[in-house]
Amino acid sequence: MSNQKDFNWDDFGTKGFGEGYSKDKRAEMEALYAGTLNEITEKEVIKGTVVGINDKDVIINIGFKSDGLVPRTEFRDLPDLKIGDEVELFIEEQENALGQLVLSRKKARMVRAWSDIEEALEHDNVIEGLVKRRTKGGLIVDIYGVEAFLPGSQIDVKPIRDFDIYVGKKMEVKVVKINHTNDNVVVSHKVLIEKDLEKQKAEILNNLEKGQVLEGVIKNMTNFGVFIDLGGVDGLLHITDISWGRINHPEEVLNLDDKVQIVVLDFDDDKKRISLGMKQLTAHPWDALSAELEVGSRVKGKIVNVADYGAFLELAPGVEGLIHVSEMSWSQHLRNPADFVKVGDEIEAVVLTLDKDERKMSLGIKQLTEDPWTKGDMAAKYAVGTKHKGVVRNLTNFGLFLELEEGIDGLVHVSDLSWTKKIKHPSEFVKVGDELEVAVLELDVENRRLALGHKQLEENPWDTFENVFPVGSDHKCTVVSKNDKGAVLELPYGLEGFATTKNLEKADGTSVEVGESIEFKVTEFSKDDKRIVLSHTATFREEAKPAAAPKKAKKKEDAPASSAPAEKSTLGDLDALAELKEKMEGGKK
C-alpha cells in the first residue's frame, strides 16, 4: 500500500498531448507555444502560408493553433500554386462543429476587391478590367473579380454603334460611382480619353491656323456635311467642300469612322466653329481643262441637275456648264427643261461662252441642229399663199401665235380668223394646244416674222353677201343681245347685224326682246367694214303709210318679178353660201 501512496502520477507517460510534464513544465511549454500563436478575429482578412496541397483542399497555416482547409477550386486562378506561397484568406469561423478553422480565399478576394475599388474611387486610380459581356445599355467589366457596369455613353467620346467589338478585351477604366446598398459599381473609360483629349485639344487649338492640314475621323454624317473629330476638337466638312464634283449626300463618297486628311478653311475667334475642306487638297479640275476647249467646241457630259431655268451638264467632276432653257430648242416658246433632259442623261452640247478665270461656261443643245430660219428652202417652203397646219402656242388680245415647226412661229391676227364673225379675243375661236390651218400672208426671213391668216383659206364671202343682203331687203333675224345703244342680231349664214334701240320698236309699241326671231329690214350694208345695220320698225312703218300702201302692195306682188335679177344672182350662190357656212362652222370647231 505504501508503494501505491508513493506513486507519482505526473511521471506516468500517457498518449495525451502535454501529459507527462510537471505543472511548472506545462506552464512553461504553454507560454512558449502562446508566443508563436496569433490572435485571430472572425470576419477579417489575414495572410496565410500554403503548407499542403491535395486533390480537394489546400492546407493553410495562419499561425493559429490549427491549420485551415480551403477548397482547391478557390485557387483556379493560381495554377502554379505551391507549398510556401503566401495567400490572403477570410476567417469565417475560428472553430466549426468539427473543431476546424474555416477559411475562404474567395471571400478574402471579394473583401480585398471592394477595398481596392473604394480606394480607386477615393484616389481616382486607373484600373485595368476585362470586358466580360454586353448588357442592355453598355458593358459588364470584371475589376478585381467584381462585375462593374460600363454605360455605353462612357465607353468613348464618340458614339459607339457596335458594343460587341469590346467583349473579351482588356480596358482601362476609372470608378465613378459605388452603390453599397446594391453592391453596384459604375466605371468609365471615356473619362480617361477625355483627359488625354484635353491636352490634345489644347495643343491643336493653340496651333490651329488656316491652311493647316490635319487628320481626323468621321464621327457623324448629315445631309449637309460631315463632322470630323480632330482629336478632341470637332470640325465641319460641308458637303460642298468634300468634292469638286456634285454630290447629293456625303455617304456617296465617305463612311463613318473613316480616317481622312482635311485642311482648315476657317474658324471663329473662340475656335469653337472650325470649317474644314477636303477638295482643296487637290487641284481644281478647271485648271486641268484642255487648251483646245473653246467657244464652238462640242462636249459630252452628264446632266447633274435640272432647274426651272435650265440644266447643268458635268463635263468632269467639278466642271459644269449651264444649258439655259432657251438654248435647248429653236422654239420661241420656253418650256420646262425637264421636257428635254433629266438627271443622269449623257448628252452632247456646244460651248457658247467660256470664262476659265471665272470658271463659268454656258452650253447649248439646239446648236447641234440647223436654225430653221436659215435653211435654204425657208423662202420657198413658207412663200406667201402657201398653206400649213400648226399648233396654237399662245393667245394675246390682238391674235395668236402658231408654231408651224420647232423654231418657226407665225402670228395670226384676230381679224384674220373669220370673215363673218366679229371676234374680240382669239379665245372665242381657239384654245392653246389646238391645231389650226392657215395660209401665209407675209414672210420676212431677215426679221424672222411670219404673218398668217385662217380666213384666207376661203374666198371672201362678203362679195356674195353684198347681193344677198342689199339695202331694203327683209330677213328673219334673232336678237342675240341688247344694250343701251341697241341690239346684236344673228342673221342667216352666221352673220351678225346691228339694230339701234329706236329701230327695235314693234307695231304695238313694245320692243323686240333678246331671243326673239322677227323680220328686220337692211338699212345699211358695208362690205369693207363688214357691217350690216337693220331695223324692225322699218318693216311696218313704211307699210302703214296710206298713200304708199297700194304701191307697197303692188311692190310685194311684183317683188318676185322686180327682184328676179337680184334673186337670180343671189340664189345662184346659195348653195355655195351654205357650203361656206358649213366650212366656217367647222373651222370654228
TrEMBL record:
Protein name: 30S ribosomal protein S1
Record's function text: Binds mRNA; thus facilitating recognition of the initiation point. It is needed to translate mRNA with a short Shine-Dalgarno (SD) purine-rich sequence.
Pfam families, per the entry: S1 (PF00575)
Low complexity: compositionally biased ranges: 560-569
GO cellular component, as recorded: ribosome
Keywords from the UniProt entry: Repeat, Ribonucleoprotein, Ribosomal protein, RNA-binding
Stretches the record annotates as Disordered: 541-574
Annotated InterPro entries: NA-bd_OB-fold, Ribos_protein_bS1-like, Ribosomal_bS1, Ribosomal_protein_S1-like, S1_domain
SUPFAM superfamilies recorded: Nucleic acid-binding proteins
Domain S1 motif: 43-106, 124-190, 211-279, 296-366, 385-455, 472-537
Family: Belongs to the bacterial ribosomal protein bS1 family.
Gene3D superfamilies cross-referenced by the UniProt entry: Nucleic acid-binding proteins (2.40.50.140)
